Amino acid sequence: MRERPTWLPPFEVFEVVSLNRLPLRHHLMRGPENFHNLSLILQGIGECGSCATAIKLKDIISACRIMAEKADSDLARIAVNDKDFYSLFCGEPLVWLPRLPTLTEALRNATALMSLNFLNVGLDHTHLALLAEGLCCNKSLMELNLTGNAFEAAGHILARILRSNTTITRLCIGSSAIDGACAVEIAAGLVGATVLTTLGLRDNPVGLEGVRAIATALPRTLTYLDLGMTRLGPDSAAVLSRMLAHNTTLLVLILAHNSIGSVGVAALAGALASNTTLATLDLTANAIDAAGACALAAALHSNVALTSLELRDNAIDYRGAEALIAALEFNMFVKHIGLTGNHAIASDLVARLERLLDDAGRAAAAAGQADTKPACEMPRQHRE
How far is 222 from 153, CA to CA, in rounded Å? Predict the structure, then answer.
């Protein structure tokens, strides 16, 4: 038996079915015409006596061929503007990264494609710069999901897309290494956005610098903003409170898993007292104690827009819960308050609050005052 070639990866890596994790990227990146290179690996494994591993690799190669053929078929349908093909999911990096030039050209003249999803594909600023050539010209795309990529150096490119594209209404760029400086660049593009309704920035190190720029630049069309897990603190909450005090379009604000604390929540509560449009506020896991809950309860005495307040996994105790219950005696619009995970609140208090929210008379009272309540249509992904 021949000695195992040094260029072969360890046998055990071929037990991993996901192509993302296989060290064969350099053999696949140029597309299906380069599959003959994999036969060299297959031959080397066979010569080392690992027949089972060779069979596994054959299955992987076959699966990759099928995905490549499907990708080419999808690109052809986009190119001819197939009206029955309106959503594209580019889920496999080894298949789609080499096809970005072709996709970019197809996007220039596409009139049927409405949704493009690059979730966890591994795009960086060079890939995005190429895609931008097509996205800036495109006149059909409405949803763009770029979550799970690496855009720490791509803020100016995202800004260009926002300024130039006139059809994208929903943009998600979560978990993409967007820091404060990058967020500032994105904010420059938000100023020129004319149709954007949904912006998802979850799980990025945006911080105070970034949120200050974003809050200042929010377009008048935006109704849904996700800033969960973006390293926000009390100062960031103060910035957002100033925005909420004057904003008349935002319906949903997600601030979950930050470090806003009760000081930051008090600032937000001050804005809620006068805000007439925000319907959903998510403050899950923000180190909020009884003082923060009491501040929110005070705001509910005058707020007529909020219907859902999420306070899960905080440090609220019975005093905060009692204050919220008392506020619900005055506020007939709130339909949900989430308190799960606040372990200092007794179960009987939670049950009491739930009964109050479910009370039929309360619902009737809210219906009777419907003429004073602003319309609130949630973005689709929030409803789902």
Answer: 25
DSSP assigned state of 317: B
What is the sign of the dihedral through the CA atoms of 22, 118, 157 and 201? negative
Antiparallel, parallel or unpaired: β 198-200 and 252-254: unpaired
CA dihedral 322, 324, 327, 333 (to 10 degrees): -140
Residue 316 CA from chain centroid, whole number: 28
Would you give per-residue pLDDT tens digits along the chain (384 residues)?
444 344 333 333 333 333 343 444 434 433 443 444 444 444 444 444 445 555 556 666 677 778 888 999 999 999 999 999 999 999 888 789 999 999 999 999 999 999 999 999 999 999 999 999 999 999 999 999 999 999 999 999 999 999 999 999 999 999 999 999 999 999 999 998 999 999 999 999 999 999 999 999 999 999 999 999 999 999 999 999 999 999 999 999 999 999 999 999 999 999 998 999 999 999 999 999 999 999 999 999 999 999 999 999 999 999 999 999 999 988 999 999 999 999 999 988 988 898 888 874 455 555 555 444 333 333 433 333
Give Cα separations from 192 to 181, 196, 303 (angstroms): 18, 10, 31
d(CA 302, CA 274): 8
**Taking the mean position of all CA atoms in its chain, how far away is CA 350?**
30
CB < 8 Å & 24+ apart, contacts of 151-154 = 151/123, 151/124, 151/125, 151/176, 151/177, 151/178, 151/182, 152/125, 152/176, 152/177, 152/178, 152/179, 152/182, 153/124, 153/125, 153/182, 154/124, 154/125, 154/128, 154/129, 154/182
